[in-house]
Amino acid sequence: MLKNILHGGIVLLKPLGDRVIVEVAEEEEQTVGGIVLASNAKEKPQTGKVIAVGAGALSPDGKRLPMSVAEGDVVMYDKYAGSEVKYEGQKYLVMHDKDIMAIVK
Q1: What is the distance between the alpha carbons of residues 82 and 32, in angstroms, rounded to a whole number?
Q2: Where is it localised (predicted)?
Q3: Dihedral angle sign, alpha carbons of residues 44, 73, 69, 7
Q4: How many CB atoms are closer than 10 A to CB 57?
Q5: Do 4 and 51 contact (CB within 8 A), yes or no?
């Protein structure tokens, strides 16, 4: 089992292969002009914090390929990447390493 970095609890998901579990960033409640948006009008966030990383994909000759991200990285990912999972009220995405576009510094 993996430790949840942000909450100190236990996450019952361990990503396999080249998969990554990302904690979805909170959605913005209002615009810069102060207008409050309805929940259905908000854009899906495309950033989050990596909380678990798989061992990496296998190459054709059986060697593990290194992952491009590590636990704790804040990342940007494709808009429709991954599968959404909810655990204890928090949203997570399980996605492939290739769906991550950048690490936010």
Answers
A1: 29
A2: Cytoplasm
A3: negative
A4: 17
A5: yes
Taking the C-alpha atoms of residue 22 and residue 35, their distance in angstroms, rounded to an integer, is: 29
Cα 102 to Cα 80: distance, rounded to the nearest angstrom: 15
pLDDT tens readout for residues 6-55 = 445 555 678 999 999 999 887 655 555 666 665 555 566 689 999 999 99
Give the pLDDT score at 42. 54
Question: Which tokens is 19 given?
Answer: 């998969």
In the chain the domains, ranked by start, together with CATH numbers, are 2-26+41-104 (2.30.33.40)
Place of tokens 């655990």: 87
Dihedral class, residue 33 (left if φ above 0, else alpha if ψ from -120 to 50, else beta): alpha
User: Which residues fall within 8 angstroms of residue 19, CB to CB, at 6 or more apart?
Assistant: 54, 94, 95, 96, 97
- Pairwise CA distance, residues 80 & 83, whole Å: 9
Helix and strand totals (H; E) in the chain: 0, 8
Q: How far apart are CA 69 and CA 89, in angstroms?
A: 25
